[in-house]
Specification:
The chain is an alpha+beta fold and 119 residues long. It is built from four helices and six strands. The chain has one domain: Aspartate Aminotransferase, domain 1 (Alpha-Beta Complex).
């Protein structure tokens, strides 16, 4: 997955926006103000921090040692850093981004979740 493909995929979700609250180089993808992905699109290797269910996070780290690690500068229980351009299947990266988005949406207040369901 290229940086452009990662960016486009993150922005493809309902109400997703790109923001730069930390620096102009760090893309933060949010849904209704809540972060679901954080990346430096020009960095090599290309990595992205993604929210993850704690049990899944541990399993993924074991299955993809060195490519999925505890979230850098994040809550290590709930976030993973995923190396996007180092051999992980694009399908898996997409699933992890979508899972991160879904976890963040699930944590939104009910009224905001319902707003997302409207066209």
């Amino acid at each position: 997955m290229t940086p452009g493909e990662l960016r486009a995929f993150c922005l493809s979700f309902n109400a997703a926006v790109e923001d730069f609250p930390f620096s102009p180089e760090i893309s933060v993808f949010k849904v209704l103000g809540r972060m679901f992905a954080l990346t430096h699109l020009d960095a090599r290797p290309l990595t992205v921090n993604l929210k993850c269910d704690p049990e899944d996070a541990i399993r993924l780290r074991g299955e993809h040692e060195g490519l999925i690690v505890p979230g850098w500068h994040m809550n290590k229980r709930h976030w993973n850093t995923v190396t996007v351009d180092a051999g992980l299947p694009d399908r898996l990266v997409r699933e992890l981004v979508e899972d991160s988005y879904d976890l963040v949406v699930a944590g939104l207040p009910r009224a905001e979740r319902l707003r997302l369901d409207r066209p």
